[in-house]
Fold:
Amino acid sequence: MKRTDQIRIAILDMYDGHTNEGMRCIRAIIRRFFEHEGVAGDFQLFDVRGKNEVPGLDFDIYISTGGPGSPLLAGHPWEENYYRFIDRLFEYNQRAVRKKYMFLICHSFQMVTQHLGLAEITKRKSTSFGVMPVHRVGAGHQEALFYGLPEPFYAVDSRDYQVIRPNRTHLRAFGAKILCLEKIRPHIPLERAIMAIRFSDEVFGTQFHPEADAEGMLHYFQQEEKRQIVIEHHGEAKYFEMIDRLDDPDKIMLTEAVILPGFLAKAAEQLLACPV
Structure:
């Protein structure tokens, strides 16, 4: 049934002006969501790092993107504004009947996890890049946003930093739950990074890129320039492994179709059931 309520979505652009595929994918998912769910609405872009733009609390759903560089505090003016917004959103949800919903991706996930003191952020010894298996742990086995995905499921991973060493005391006090970890590496004696956290009923975050569009990324990385960059930095074997996994309907295509669309649908269902 066609619903006429307006759902307003804010995209917090953390790419700092760098060329990326993520923004195209997020826009496409939102447009499909409005069309397929029969929901009326719109979305607005905020250039957080480039123009120090942060939305107010007059939107219903917020998607904070991935981005390049270090998630560690560097004293930029936009950092204070971004964290102030995050605090306001959590505070608002503690007292409001009609909640605000937020999805945090990669760079944003790292920043918010660090800000809330839920875990530590460290630089990896080498970049994690490619289509990687993600393993559920604990509450992840009951997480509704993962329904329909295999165990493990596959996702695009692209990061120089990692979320590790969870603070169990802060997690319990905040009510946050770790949902999954990076691939199992029995030959490497290092802690596995946290790949997703449910911060609250309304706020969800992933270290990986659930928005990644397999078809678009396949086209992107088959360009000779991009192909050579990947091979130069990660090797030919990694390149062909990634291409093979991008072309598999049970991997990236499935993850893209399930997680972020599911988050938007569940958020809209709650919002439309609750009076303004």
About this structure: DSSP finds nine helices and nine strands in the chain.
